[in-house]
Amino acid sequence: MKTRAKGFTPLAEINVTPFVDVMLVLLIIFMVTAPMMQQGLEVDLPKAEGKGFSKEDRITLSITRGKTIYLGDKEKTSITELTSRLSGKRDSEVLIKADANVPYGFVMQVMSKVKKAGIEKVGMVTAPEK
Fold it and tell me: What is the span of the domain harbouring residue 81?
């Protein structure tokens, strides 16, 4: 067996190469997935001048070109279920993002269901006019 020589200090360095490799892989995964998380539903918003809105307790209703209604960005719902899904949220503000090609009458039906649920603050989301 070997014996320690007088004055010998053990090597206590940490090898950081595996740590850097793992961090680079995580960084690449984050960079690839971050833009995907930012995307919402594709809705062609009408253009109009308007005032911004606050970030209070609000609910977003998206209406796609095919008259599909989404509560938030992921919860698909129908116009018949809308009143029951919104009941109990009287203090909330509802913002409607309707595609520019959705008929006006359908948007009015959705607004009517929102009002029937007892929500008084209803707004329309538009794209800024250039």
Answer: 58-124
Give the pairing of strands 58-63 and 93-98.
parallel
How is the beta sheet containing 58-63 ordered, strand by strand? 75-77, 69-71, 58-63, 93-98, 121-124
- pTM for the structure as a whole: 0.57
Tally of CA atoms within 13 A in the half-sphere of 51 that contains its CB: 3
Cα gap 54→58, rounded to integer Å: 9
Structural domain count of the chain: 1
Within 13 Å and on the Cβ side, how many CA atoms surround 8? Answer: 7
Residue 92 lies in a domain: yes
pLDDT digits (tens, 9 = 90+) for 1-49: 555 556 677 777 788 888 999 999 999 998 888 776 655 666 666 666 7
Question: What CATH number corresponds to the domain at position 76?
Answer: 3.30.420.270
H or E stretch at 35: helix 17-38
Give the residue from 105, 92, 35, 115 showing the smallest Cα distance to 63: 105
